């Protein structure tokens, strides 16, 4: 019968006695077989890890997830190997498992926040809502993804700040990826005076779009009257471009449409109130 590990109330002398009982039942032959069992478990562990690495490489799993999974499985298999060898050598396995379980619960409670972020990091890496280099809005912050870690994701803002966002927040909120698609649409609205000819206004906007090298014409650009305000008419311009050209086209069209309106005498208006004084 295997000896029982001492409880928390046992003395050091009783602990030594337990291991002495295990040692007395250990023979040279049993020790050699135990060593062979250990080496066999090591060989099996190496084969399993190799198969898992090949599978993850074939599936193109995120490198960070691959490395983390490999490390976790390696630790788990080391624990299983230790339990198998200990059981063969008549060590008290049930008590060892109980102790490991208590340690695991204590660690999980003390690292609850970190484990939540760790789970979020694995979710982000497996689902791949964004990649390094993408401009995203996540966790209430916008920026370019510079690094995806297991616990934090690093975003670089347009004013060159690095922000660390816990992955637990990212995985539980809405994520907007501005680089996921190859094309994006620029939407602009201009408010023009009622005195301007609508067809002339739209033609000026079409000419500006046609002259820009970054504008795409499939799908066809959209230029229409979209609102009739109290003191102005709203014209909306929608044109597609390559994702990397979005901001350049956006600001170019703002400047060039304004300049074209000025040349053609089209008044860009704003909210205002006209007061007419009537004399009797």
TrEMBL record:
Record's protein name: Mechanosensitive ion channel family protein
Domain called Mechanosensitive ion channel MscS: residue spans: 114-180
Residue ranges constituting the Mechanosensitive ion channel transmembrane helices 2/3 domain according to the UniProt record: 72-112
Domain Mechanosensitive ion channel MscS C-terminal per the UniProt entry, residue ranges: 186-268
InterPro entries on file: LSM_dom_sf, MS_channel_1st, MS_channel_C, MscS_archaea/bacteria_type, MscS_beta-dom_sf, MscS_channel_2nd, MscS_channel_C_sf, MscS_channel_CS
Entry keyword set: Cell membrane, Membrane, Transmembrane, Transmembrane helix
Subcellular location per the Swiss-Prot or TrEMBL entry: Cell membrane
């Amino acid at each position: 019968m295997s000896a029982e590990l001492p409880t928390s109330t046992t003395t050091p002398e009783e602990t030594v006695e337990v291991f002495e009982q295990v040692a007395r039942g250990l023979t040279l032959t049993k020790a050699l077989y135990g060593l062979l069992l250990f080496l066999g478990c090591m060989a099996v562990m190496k084969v399993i890890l190799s198969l898992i690495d090949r599978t993850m490489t074939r599936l193109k799993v995120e490198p960070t997830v691959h490395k983390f999974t490999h490390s976790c499985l390696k630790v788990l298999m080391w624990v299983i190997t230790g339990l198998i060898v200990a059981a063969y050598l008549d060590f008290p396995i049930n008590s060892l498992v109980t102790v490991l379980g208590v340690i695991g619960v204590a660690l999980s409670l003390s690292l609850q926040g970190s484990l939540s972020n760790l789970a979020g990091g694995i979710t982000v890496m497996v689902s791949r809502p964004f990649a390094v280099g993408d401009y995203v809005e996540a966790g209430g912050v916008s920026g370019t993804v510079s690094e995806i870690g297991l616990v934090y994701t690093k975003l670089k803002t347009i004013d060159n700040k690095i922000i660390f966002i816990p992955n637990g927040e990212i995985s539980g909120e809405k994520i907007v990826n501005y680089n996921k698609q190859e094309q994006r649409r620029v939407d602009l609205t201009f408010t023009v005076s009622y005195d301007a000819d609508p067809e002339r206004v739209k033609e000026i906007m079409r000419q500006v779009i046609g002259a820009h090298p970054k504008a795409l014409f499939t799908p066809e650009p959209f230029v229409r009257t979209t609102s009739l305000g109290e003191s102005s008419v709203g014209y909306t311009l929608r044109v597609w471009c390559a994702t990397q050209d979005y901001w350049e086209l956006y600001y170019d069209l703002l400047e060039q449409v304004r300049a074209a309106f000025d040349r053609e005498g089209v008044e860009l208006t704003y909210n205002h109130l006209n007061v007419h004084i009537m004399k009797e």
